[in-house]
Amino acid sequence: EVWNPNGKYRVVSTKAMPGTRWINLLIEQDCRVEICTQKKTILSVEDIIALMGDKCDGVIGQLTEDWGETLFSALSRAGGKAFSNMAVGYNNVDVNAATKYGVAVGNTPGVLTETTAELAASLSLAAARRIVEADEFMRAGLYDGWLPQLFVGNLLKGQTVGVIGAGRIGSAYARMMVEGFKMNLIYYDLYQSTRLEKFVTGMSGSSVKIYQLLTLILMLICFLFAAYGQFLKANGEQPVTWKRASSMNEVLQEADVISLHPILDKTTYHLVNKESLSMMKKEAILINCSRGAVVDEVALVEHLKANPMFRVGLDVFEDEPYMKPGLADMKNAIVVPHIASASKWTREGMATLAALNVLGKIKGYPIWSDPNR
Ligand code: DGY
């Protein structure tokens, strides 16, 4: 599919993307836009090389593609300067190879934060209240009347939510679970991100003087909160608590619901493995909307088999689009096909950011969102 055939710059998108805003942006800036119409879901390196051809100024690609040395050298030979992943995650992109061939790389953070956090929250609720199992039960015609023990799940209120990876998405998810469901919070960030800390404490930390003033105000607020806590206790309510864990194991041991939000790299590959699973509570819920390989899926299947009260909600898998043998048979697993960012607003935003990334570089502006920055 070709838009604006006489455009000066040739921009290729390896997939059709939602909305038309991204196409219009490129056309207005004298780009010829070519969208791959191949039926295959996942394009091979060879398919993409053929698509780029001899002249290609920039490419918008997808997280299912392997953007390494071969593709970046081919893009550079075609005169290309820019590549944008239509994703916030860029574990499929070899940024060093891109740099070596003079190609700038962009990703699409921000617009998918709330949408992804909402899916993690949905999976948490669905797992806690066994919604998918109950739905299957109804559709199978098995419901023959209300029973006191039918699909009894967990009440989230007052339980502890554990967040591993406290960046944008992890922080948004924590906020939803704490504010929305009155869960206590424990979190751990491998890169010591203070984003979530700012959310919980409400501190900006910008200058010493402001900090001192804020400390005073905070002390006053703390006093009021303590008084409020006493009031709630007296009235049978527990105020929520939060803490930053000093190790991931602390989160694994203490949390009732654990949600994973780290990036995937060497350090987070199989972060959740046989040993870490064994540290979690027998009735814990594990949510993964980050990348599949953060969890050792074979070990997870074994753990699900051995612990029927342990539940998972998975949006991502180690070898997408496949699941490891046995996972699909587990009643205590909810599995969805990598749809965490799949809201209309977000997907259109991701497409627009990806187009802006490529356009910015072609036109000589700084790339909108460079993961190296
Ligand atoms: C991303 O952007 O990295 C998400 O996985 C897409 O849903």
UniProtKB/TrEMBL annotation:
Alphabetized UniProt keyword annotations: Membrane, Oxidoreductase, Transmembrane, Transmembrane helix
Database matches in SUPFAM superfamilies: Formate/glycerate dehydrogenase catalytic domain-like, NAD(P)-binding Rossmann-fold domains
Regions that span the bilayer: 210-228
Organism domain of life: Eukaryota
Example of a GO MF term: NAD binding
Domain D-isomer specific 2-hydroxyacid dehydrogenase NAD-binding: 123-196, 241-340
Assigned protein family: Belongs to the D-isomer specific 2-hydroxyacid dehydrogenase family.
GO CC, one annotated term: cytosol
Official protein name in the record: Glycerate dehydrogenase
Native source species: Camellia sinensis
Gene3D superfamilies linked: NAD(P)-binding Rossmann-like Domain
PANTHER family from the UniProt entry: 2-HYDROXYACID DEHYDROGENASE-RELATED (PTHR10996), GLYOXYLATE REDUCTASE 1 (PTHR10996:SF257)
Keyword Cell membrane carried by entry: no
Domain D-isomer specific 2-hydroxyacid dehydrogenase catalytic: 28-364
